[in-house]
Amino acid sequence: MRAIWSGAIGFGLVNIPIKLYSASEESSIDLDMLDSKDFSNIKFKRVNEKTGKEVAYENIVKGYKMEDRYIVLEKEDFEAASPEKSKILSIKQFVNHDDIDPAYFETPYFLEPQKNSEEAYKLLLKSLVKTKMAGIGTFILREKEILCLVRPYENKILMVNRMRFPQELRSYEDLNIPAGKNPKEEELKMAESLIRQLATDFTPEKFKDTYHDDLMKIINQKAKGKAVKIDEPAEKQTAPSDLMAMLKASLEAGKKATG
Q: Which first-to-last residue range defines the signal peptide (predicted)?
């Protein structure tokens, strides 16, 4: 893996030099964009809108449009905006991980201690494991301020979970969510029984992205000249009058599955 950021974690007066690595990767199939006429690859170019000529990457700068002109920003300008956040992931508070709504979570990253910071790294890791807490902090990554959670992962390594700022979460107030009638007491009890019946410890190994494999089967079929058959799934919607019947059937099916 290649480090995408290097700096330090700061909590209190303690600084721990670290490197940041992406902890996830895409599992989608790598598909190329082609011209439907002759299947030639589609290439994208950075083009000057006035001259129509391609611009080399090293000649591209970033700018902010203010009224009728651009203010061009250099690398030093980004670093000058928040120099301390460009190099230090500063933990502002420690919280219970379970107190944070999952809607705030985004990308995970691994943290690796740099040379001579192993002891301080282990101290923070073991302290978070023992207290069952996580640190909330901010730093600058790729010219953007990141809100993040620093926590133990499998009690062996520190992980950073990138988080959304509150203003990045949309409001649902404009959605058409009718109040509706409250469920009947018997329906509610049966739904609770079904939930308890299906309740178990989370086992991530049980879940797999199967779409990738299914799509590869289609690709292999087409490569052999075979026709692709589409099985249209029937759209199902449980009517209010069928709720009790569906809940009972679900409970019975669950009982049979567990013997």
A: none
Residues 91 and 143 in one domain: yes
For residue 48, tell me if it sits in a domain.
no
| Rounded Cα gap, residues 247 and 259, in angstroms | 19
Tell me the pLDDT tens digit for each residue of 161-192.
999 999 999 888 888 887 777 878 888 888 88
Q: Which two tokens stand for residue 232?
A: 């249209």
b/e code 75-114 from CB counts within 10 Å (16+ = b)? eeebeeeeeebbbbbbbeeeeeeeeeeeebeeebbbbbbe
Mean pLDDT, range 116-133, rounded to an integer: 94
Residues 8 and 128 in one domain: yes
Amino acid of residue 212: H
Q: 202: Cβ–Cβ under 8 A, 6 or more apart, which residues?
A: none
- Is 60 exceeded by the pLDDT of residue 240? no
Q: How far is CA 177 from CA 27, 101, 171, 184, in A?
A: 34, 21, 13, 19
CA geometry: angle 215, 220, 226, nearest 5 deg: 110
207 in a domain, yes or no?
A: no
Amino acid at 217: K
pTM of the model: 0.72
